[in-house]
Amino acid sequence: MVSTSTSGSTSNRGFLNVAGEMAQRTREFDWSSTPVGLIDNWPQSLRTTVSIMLRSKFPMFIWWGPELIQFYNDAYMPSMGNDGKHPAALGQRGEECWPEIWPVIYPLIKQVMDGGEATWSEDQLIPIYRNGHLEDVYWTFSYNAIISERGTVGGVLVVCYENTEKMVHYQKVVESESMLSFAIDAAELATWDLNPITNKFTSNDRLKSWFGLQPKDEIELPIAIAAMIEEDRDRVAAAIQRALEYSSGGFYDITYTIVNKHTAESRIVRAKGRATFNEEKIACRFNGTLQDITEQEMA
Question: What one-character-per-residue DSSP string does 108-173 give?
């Protein structure tokens, strides 16, 4: 509810002389219709906190008084979405505004209002109604006490930001990695990763077992080379060297034979990989897969 009424003197409202939509809405709102009362009668603690909030470029929100009457700034508005709670949320009671998440957030609010410690939540999933439907929204936020002139808690200041986009991207990466892992297992592929700068060589457990190593064992590049039959080593080394040259595009595709150092079991493998290069055109990563093609080759 926005009213053009500005009942009362404006001489004591300098703390609201801020540019922005929410500052204007706060100035014009009929606060006499709420338990907060006329702006001219607001306590200094509320005035100061509202002034800080409206001037901040960081999303902020206030619940004030036992009824938890709401204030928020321009930076918070985008998190309400289109066709959501803005602008009706201004001056509204918290429980009326957030029925879908009240069981989740009210215990945190009450903790602070009762004089408890401030709260901190990171990457917290709190679905809210916005854009015409209930959306999964991730937040990082802190609830902090606003101390009144009486030395008691007068309200709660929320400092927050939405990181839904980051979390959705993270989930897609996890899903992608899970699908890749499934595909690797289904194809019975071994994987390897070489840091050409440090010569650090890592692999999955399948490749270690082919070499005759335990899952906990570390693989160093000399071990990987030693697992090849002697007549293939120079050819593989040349192919690796070529892939690590920027002009090659980093591509690597070669077939050779490896031998388990404990069982002496040999297998013919096809190695496929690619090197990636930094801005100086120096190879900084070289990774790929090994496929056991022994049966095909023997056939």
Answer: HHHHHHTT---EEEEEEE--EEETTEEE--EEEEEEEEEE-TTSSEEEEEEEEEE-HHHHHHHHHH
For the chain, what is the mean pLDDT?
83
- Per residue in 246-298, pLDDT (tens digit) is 999 989 899 999 888 888 888 898 888 888 899 889 888 888 888 888 877 77
Instruction: Look at residue 267 and tell me if it is in a domain.
Output: yes
Burial of 274 (0-12, 13-18, 19+ CB in 10 A): middle
CA angle 287, 292, 298 (to 5 degrees): 145
Identify the domain containing residue 43 by its residue range: 14-166
Phi, psi of 149 (to 5 degrees): -65, -25
Q: Is residue 247 part of a domain?
A: yes
22 lies in the same domain as 155: yes
For residues 150 and 200, state if they share a domain: no
* Distance linking the first and last C-alpha atoms of the chain: 80
Cis peptide before 127 (omega within 30 of 0): no
DSSP 8-state class, residue 249? T
Count of residues making up the chain: 299
φ, ψ at 84 (rounded to 5°): -115, -130
Q: What pLDDT is stored for residue 8 in this prediction?
A: 42
